Description:
The structure is a homodimer. Chain A contains 16 helices and 25 strands.
Amino acid sequence: MSHPHxxxxxxxxxxxxxxxxxxxxxxxxxGRNMTxxxxxxxxxxxxxxxxxxxxxFPEEEQPGVDLILxxxxxxRGRLDDIEAIVLTHAHEDHIGAVPYLLRERADIxxxxxxxxxxxxDAKLLEHRIRPVTRQVAEGDRMRFGPFDCEFFAxxxxxxxxxxxxxxxxxxLVLHTGDFKMDQLPLDGxxxxxxxxxxxxxxxxxxxxxxxxxAEVGGFVTSERDIGPVIDDVFRTAEQRVIVACxxxxxxxxxxxxxxxxxxxxxxxFVGRSMVRNMGVATDLGYLRAPEGxxxxxxxxxxxxxxxxxxxxxxxxxxxxxxxxxxxxxxHQIRITRGDTVLLASSLIPGNENAVNRVINGLTRWGARxxxxxxxxxxxxxxxxxxxxxxxxxxxxxxxxxxxxGEWRHLRAHAALAELTGVPRDNVVIAEDGVVVDLxxxxxxxxxxxxxxxxxxxxxxxxxxxxxxxxxxRILGEEGFISIVVAxxxxxxxxxxxxxxxxxxxxxxxxxxHDVVSxxxxxxxxxxxxxxxxxxxxxxxxxxxxxxxxxxxxxRRPMIIxxxxxx
Amino acid sequence: MSHPHxxxxxxxxxxxxxxxxxxxxxxxxxGRNMTxxxxxxxxxxxxxxxxxxxxxFPEEEQPGVDLILxxxxxxRGRLDDIEAIVLTHAHEDHIGAVPYLLRERADIxxxxxxxxxxxxDAKLLEHRIRPVTRQVAEGDRMRFGPFDCEFFAxxxxxxxxxxxxxxxxxxLVLHTGDFKMDQLPLDGxxxxxxxxxxxxxxxxxxxxxxxxxAEVGGFVTSERDIGPVIDDVFRTAEQRVIVACxxxxxxxxxxxxxxxxxxxxxxxFVGRSMVRNMGVATDLGYLRAPEGxxxxxxxxxxxxxxxxxxxxxxxxxxxxxxxxxxxxxxHQIRITRGDTVLLASSLIPGNENAVNRVINGLTRWGARxxxxxxxxxxxxxxxxxxxxxxxxxxxxxxxxxxxxGEWRHLRAHAALAELTGVPRDNVVIAEDGVVVDLxxxxxxxxxxxxxxxxxxxxxxxxxxxxxxxxxxRILGEEGFISIVVAxxxxxxxxxxxxxxxxxxxxxxxxxxHDVVSxxxxxxxxxxxxxxxxxxxxxxxxxxxxxxxxxxxxxRRPMIIxxxxxx
Lengths: 566, 566
């Protein structure tokens, strides 16, 4: 999805009474959420406000890639014009790209709630960046240049999440961030529907609302309902309990700590991100470990198995995680009959196979595995259709832009908006990079800018390109054959028998004998015809080898002819 | 999973009063179902009966592989001792490997129901094999050597499926094949619980029963309940209806034909396997197309869109299928607003991402997509726990071996068996290759034989090995760097500047300058030290390049050093 609307050109300049909205991520995909708001300034360059700056996790079409970032190209020449980055909450798909943007300008003010900033700080510390931060809370109203921002509490699967309303010369915009509407949340912090209603009465010109669960009917189950299920798992566990969940799901960890305390067990956090985040959450009072319950990993072996709880990440089957390694018996914690493993997470689409492998591995060694497929051990963090309708009806937006979702989710959310009375012409579905302008109370698509994937792989950002990935896909499916020929630099005559190296092609060395001879003949023929151009020789080799492998094996490995002139 | 129970040795010889059961596939995985039964003969070699001979479809850990076969090595030396291959039904995971086994001995008798044999015949014709077949039907009892077989009707997601009971000197075994217990099946053909009960009264020594849905509680929804949903989809479709389903799901296709007739639409089959199978099913009377309803693809364009139904495969998001290509606008049938696409299939685990991409692609172009996530358009073909309990209670088996499932399914089914009163010691969970002997009315694991994956890739069977796949995984994640150096064959001195070729490594050509110089230095140093052994030179190159790429990029591409002696 390098350029989603190929028919769209670059947009015209923004008019002075307009607000421009460009999502660099999160529209047409679940992840790397990032939206750029732009207002024309009276003097000087236009002013920018960024909401969220997250990463997308790669799927199998992005082999070897560690992370996918938004393409900052659209704002790269205007980094000094950014008034602030507002972070709605501390999930990776909303904050994960912040270190990469701050590498380009370190002093962009980061705006967020107390917990959000603490978790971002801890993350940036690992990147050796000390950000300039501005802490806000629900109810706060604060200006960043021409952007007059008001913050609202929203309930989500991480504490302290915010929605943000922007009052601009072009109108009032409400960006919900990610949210759901648990009416009995564990921390008592409700999504501020009263605030949304007040904005609706004031007149919301544009609502941008979380679409992740727009296809799902009804309402979320309360997080509160998971507590008894966890208690029951603990009550019936014969020996150790090993819990895997997201390192950001502080409420779920709290539930596990409470269940452990009730059953007289000790708890140990396993893994860097879990230890780091729970440290931050404890320091700030978001997590309260019952007195004396926490132990270090090295103390675990001295405890009887029925007194042990381990909390780790890896609930998505990440191959290098503790959980996957336990499933493969490749971890110092050896799963045995009697262990109970609780996968207390949603299953992020794309991870089904990996999680299935973990469940089968653990089951094979005799563990009882409790997961969302057989028990109510997780509820989604995103509002389903029933709740989205409440927000649409309370905010009565003049225009609607569904955000945070794939096409199927954006379309489903758009349909909900139309059902609540938003006129069809005032509902826009935009993909990443599509330019949406709000002028005179009406949204319109006015163009598109590049918003392709930027790949992080190892230490590099952006060096792995679509071409590299295409090569990887071919190599990964078919392997390669490399044919090395040394030729005399003047005559073009080959001076040694061609050498073949193949990997992943599934062809044994002896089988190459024939084709080596054939290539040698072809090159000798070429030399006799006076052909000594390296490019031509390479082409002859590629053609000869390609024909042979296709006819003999019906396969298409990558063929790399190398001609060394000596 | 090359050898599932590493602690198990080859089994002792089979005793004359015993029955040996070895699954070469289907135990510990969903697919490549194949079980070998063995009886000691009075004179001469032991006699074998094979039940099913299917393929497994590769997942992402088997990149580039087309199909996965059972390893025939266990029976390769004894092909003449096989009395018959009994095929329970015509799904690919039960018949797909038959052509590969018949390549090794073409005249093994193939036993199956009328439809099963017809579909196998059509398939073998494409492999230019004419099999020796023996048609059977429910109620038939027939001997194949010492194996006295009785066949029972079972209800499944393809017509004419059978269970098979084997009466052997060691006891009576019931193998259910795949089944469910729809009590109002479309063709009126029920799973023969009465027959199972009669066997139970006679005394079943070993029950082998389908575990696919053992983790799912309750009972299947009747196929009959899908009809009204399909009717509703047709009633509300604005323009074309495009249905994707399995090419073997004759009942589902019948429902679509009926709905098309009711709404005055014409129908066209798209794709080779759909056209072939529906031809066979029509010829045999399993499918009845209403008069005048079928049209050729070329006639479609002359019909108004609201009169058109297309039926194709690709419901699993297979990349080269018509459905995926339509989603990518890479097919002559161009999806537009107004089209309705019906994915009338289950979602086979592992295909979630591919199907999600198809749904998003179709949605993006404006199609309404109806799928199992938003409508009751498919029911499973496998009995869930509620139904499995009926079978266990009616058959009252002395011993139980759960078949057809991953570990999680086998364990869940084993737990059900224990709940119905099968003694724990008489329930065995075996993986592929594990040898289970039934002697004196008691099953026991007595050893294991190789039962690894055999990969079909292009024209080759078994040439792509685990090593090739490991290479592919590395190449697919990291790419490779090949460094070619020409050296004087006697002095070991390099005679031209090293050449570097990289693909998929995400490193641009200019970046190689430094490392080429470094390698050159290292090799010159080696030559000065009198090192001219090619293996040593290769190692020096690999080490130098590997260190550079790891330090500069934190990556680990495959490094291929090539030293050409001239």
